[in-house]
């Protein structure tokens, strides 16, 4: 009996060690991809960490992520914004990595109940009007959530599509990544790998 218990404990420890190594590998991989992503934009954008205003994330900041990374990329070139004057574009990025897929699933579930601007959203359901919403691109992977957002005055359809495609290239999986797109004051749409709206469990 004691031999069986010892073998069981040994198997559990081996399993936990493998899980820990896998989580570390995923964490390191995401950090590496973030570095490549920032480096790729080094000629056209300046990265800021300090003195950047917090973005409205709803309840996502209250969830138990393993680590987060937040920064802003500010274009070195000026563009004419929707208010009619030229200025740099300021794009904000929030990365959240979770220790387990289950942690990420619970984070998403709770976030949907207290989403951006305190709004409640439902799986795969579009929102036609979303007061105070700004252009936002959200990637949801097995163990991370990535949010790209910026002010409405910087919105340009081609530029929005550029960030969406680039984020998917660096951080997404076309078969698995759930993608949410939000425009100024709405709409909000689940545009890729949307969950089954009939499923009430975690996803």
pLDDT averaged residue by residue? 91
Overall number of structural domains = 1
Distance between the ends:
40 Å
User: What composes the largest sheet?
Assistant: 7 strands, antiparallel
Structural class: alpha+beta
Helix content: 25-40%
Our count of helices gives 3
How much strand content do the residues show? 25-35%
Calculate Rg over CA atoms. 19 Å
N-to-C SSE string, H for helix and E for strand = HEEEHEEHEE
| 3D shape | globular
Strand arrangement across the biggest beta sheet: 1-2-3-5-4-6-7
Written description of the protein model:
With 203 residues, the chain is α+β, with helices and mostly antiparallel strands. The protein has one domain. It contains three helices and seven strands, in the order αβββαββαββ. It has a seven-stranded antiparallel beta sheet with strand order 1-2-3-5-4-6-7. A hairpin with a 3-residue loop joins strand 4 and strand 5. The termini are far apart.
SSE arrangement:
Elements lengths: L1 H39 L4 E4 L18 E14 L5 E12 L3 H13 L22 E5 L3 E6 L7 H15 L6 E5 L5 E5 L11
Antiparallel strand pairs: 1-2, 2-3, 3-5, 4-5, 4-6, 6-7
Task: Considering the chains and any ligands shown, give keywords for the structure.
single chain, 203 residues, 33% helix, 7 strands, 3 helices, globular, seven-stranded antiparallel beta sheet, alpha+beta
Question: TL;DR?
Answer:
It contains three helices and seven strands. With 203 residues, the chain is an alpha+beta fold. The protein has one domain.
């Amino acid at each position: 009996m004691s031999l069986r218990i010892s073998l069981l404990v040994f198997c559990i420890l081996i399993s936990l060690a493998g899980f820990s190594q896998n989580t570390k590998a995923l964490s390191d991989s995401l950090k590496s991809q973030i570095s490549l992503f920032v480096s790729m934009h080094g000629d056209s954008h300046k990265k800021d960490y300090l003195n950047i205003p917090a973005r409205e994330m709803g309840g996502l900041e209250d969830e138990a992520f393993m680590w987060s990374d937040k920064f802003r990329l500010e274009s070195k070139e000026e563009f004419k914004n929707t208010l009619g004057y030229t200025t740099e574009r300021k794009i904000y990025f929030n990365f959240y990595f979770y220790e387990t897929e289950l942690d990420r699933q619970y984070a998403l579930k709770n976030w949907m109940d207290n989403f951006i601007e305190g709004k409640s959203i439902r799986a795969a359901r579009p929102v036609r009007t979303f007061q105070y919403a700004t252009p936002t691109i959200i990637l949801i992977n097995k163990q991370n959530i990535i949010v790209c957002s910026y002010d409405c005055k910087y919105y340009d359809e081609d530029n929005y599509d550029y960030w969406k495609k680039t984020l998917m290239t660096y951080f997404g999986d076309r078969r698995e990544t759930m993608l949410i797109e939000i425009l100024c004051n709405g709409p909000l749409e689940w545009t890729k790998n949307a969950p089954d709206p009939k499923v009430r469990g975690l996803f």
